[in-house]
User: What shape does this take?
Amino acid sequence: MKRPWIGVFKFTSCDGCQLSVLNMEDELPDFVSLFQVAYFREAGDMPLRGRFDIALVEGSVSTGWQKAQIIEVRERTRHLVTIGACAAAGGLQALRNWADIEDYKRLVYPSPDMIETLPCSTPVSDHVYVDYELWGCPVNCDELSEMLGSFLLDRKPGIPAYSLCMECKRKGVPCLLVAKSEPCLGPVTRAGCGVLCPSMERPCYGCFGPKEGANIGSLLEAFRNAGFSSHECVLLLDKMNTYAFREAGTGEGRF
Amino acid sequence: MHDKSIPFEAAIKWIKKETRDTATYALKVKSRDIQKGYRFIPGQFNMLYVPGIGEAPVSISSAPSDQDLMHTVRVAGDVTTALSHLKAGDVIGMRGPFGRGWPFEETGGLDILIVAGGLGIAPLRSVVRHILRTKKMAGAHSRRMLFYGAKTPKDIIFRNEFPRYREVFEVLLTVDRADPEERWRGETGLVTKLFDRAALDSLRTIAFVCGPEVMMQTSVRELILRGVPEERIFLSLERNMNCGVGLCGHCFFGPKFVCRDGPVFRFSEIEGLMGIKEL
Amino acid sequence: MLKQKLKKEHLGLLFDKLKVTHGVLGPKVENGVVTLAEIDAHDIPSGYEDHQQPGGYRLIKGERPEIFSFSIGPDSFKRFLQPPLREVFAFRRAAGISITRPGAEQRPLAFIDMRPCDLSALKLYDRIFLRGPVRDPYYDSLRRDSLVFVLNCLYPNDNCFCPSMGTGPEATDGFDVALTELSDSFLLEAGTAKGETVLAGLPAGEVDDSDMREKGARIELCRKRIKKFIRAGELPGLIYRNVEHPRWAEIAERDLECGNCTQLCPTCFCNSTYDALGLSGISKKSYQVSGRRMRKWDSCFSKNFARVHGGNFRPSRRARYRQWMSHKLAYTMEQFGLPGCVGCGRCITWCPAGIDITKELEALKSAR
Assistant: This one.
């Protein structure tokens, strides 16, 4: 088998998803023996050249430079996979999409004129065709391994698009929303994290983004019935997948 | 008895490309014991398994009396893609046979009408070849008809076998569309168009239908309009069979398990269900 | 069949006896919910009361004097007899294919607090997995060795409707031993020879008419406490006549499709099988792979559940909800001769959106 060339790219993000690649631990030797790593930002500095059989892209597009760069990565890549919430949904930094970027710049930087940035932080799929999106903040190592293995075997990754609740129930974790009126986003969030928060009695805050066909309006109704205000409900969704959750809701910025 | 949830090994004996995207795989069950006990009837299906990729339900396209066990597969999903990368001598997994086949026992003395669309010809080829091979069977029908519709002339599967079919069957072909350079001399249009050409003796007709769901619905409607009794119309349904034995729930069609109660159904059994969208 | 009484303080003896040979499964409080786990007698959350409503569950320390002072939690036998995730076989593909089935090393199970509704679901499971055209060997081996102690109910929760389905609050058959908690003791009634064997050797009190009267009165009281009902006599016709009822679309607006109802329903059995292999299962030599074929609980609410290449038979949420409710209230009866709903009310309690199957059924009767 010819070892495919892989590139790992990074835009606006915290590097956590790239670290997940390095965190595959047991499978890291397999990773390097099965793929030829041609570009890996987190593991060392390399110039961008050549072509890639598969590219893993972390981070959202939030500057003009990145907008150009992602197109170049796409042109050099056969199979483009985004890793993580930033690349799939714009990330936490997409919160600025609901505000005025100039206000933010003035608030944060002493010399706002030096800052070059786009008004919105957007998912990679807003700019180029994406073959596969791996969700999560950060991505799950097992899903990463499944996705990479599936690429080698030429099959669709067996990664579920259903809700976190399914995973919770399989693990026997009692429902926090029903039993404690905790504002858990599980019913509208993709499974995949391995029930990290609910198994610690913490409600899900949506790291893995909206599940396929998420009924956000209905969940927010349940939150309101549990005593949360509409404003609080919006805040619950406005995290690392704010852009995707708002899009999946009844309309941008209003619920 | 062999555990039906565990695949057994089957070696690919040969592969014949049928069309651009469809090929026939002849399989040989490796274990002698299993092979000896392996009996199927036309219309039944096997689960073909490529380890690491997955399983797919595929109906058997050869006749029980054929020497080879054949499956005709169109490249559509992961499993069929993986199959398309294999070659003779490679080994895959197989479970089966599953489901209810075509009711031969009811065809005696009647006009048998086979209506196929696209890849739907595969489970019906099993019937055709069975009739061809068992002369006694052939004599049992007063009339034998095979109507087949494909997208284009190039998509006609088993094209080279039709001359042989014509010895025993009245064969009528139609395509959705044909480019002029293909010099297509048959019909163009829906397979139901062929019904008028054949002057069916409706009360003596028994129909086996398989193809895309819309094609089956229109075919059944037309057959009923022409007076073919609902009890004598049989269809083979497609669903996403996963376990093959009625234990997983994937292939529900209303209260029916397509894997177990079907895939071949008498139309009168499922008449009430056929018209319901998204059942 | 053998009938005897067991003093409440002797309940531990029953556990001690069972534990020698069985994993004893019973109620235990975890994260504020009565769950099912391997327990000892002292783990039973005596005195706790569960308050259930559509989309709500609260457990409080109450005043009830009984040991089994609570009703059902989210878990049922199915977690143990048909687990959420299990290996079907391990595979290796090289020149040929080798398949290795996992060894069956599980200890037999004793269910100490199975409620009559769940017992009915167990009977359905037996039909599905043991009496169909093909037996499920995994379920078969676990089920054959398991012991079922059914506990007749004293306190229903507000979402129970077992009398409507004819499944409770009292169990009449299908158990190894039936327990009824009386004021001073447990009444134990063997239902099978296996059950009688378990009872033999326990300190036995004699059962007289007054005990049987007390049992009857207690169960009758429970029956009166049950608030919800459906008219099961109208099934399955009510469903079949209303496949295009506008109510389905209304439910779809509220339906979260989280799948909770299906995962906790003791009769839901849908599952998916798939090959699990990570990078470690792939060899550099082309075409060699190894991994495990897994079987996982699935749900008709998963959008991909009815997907085939090139299409989905149930693309809309409306159709998926209709499929679930129709399977519960109509199809199962036709498929297996038993109702697919046992009236346990779990789908109502554990639905975050509070969708109530009894109300939805009622709504199907309204004008279209």
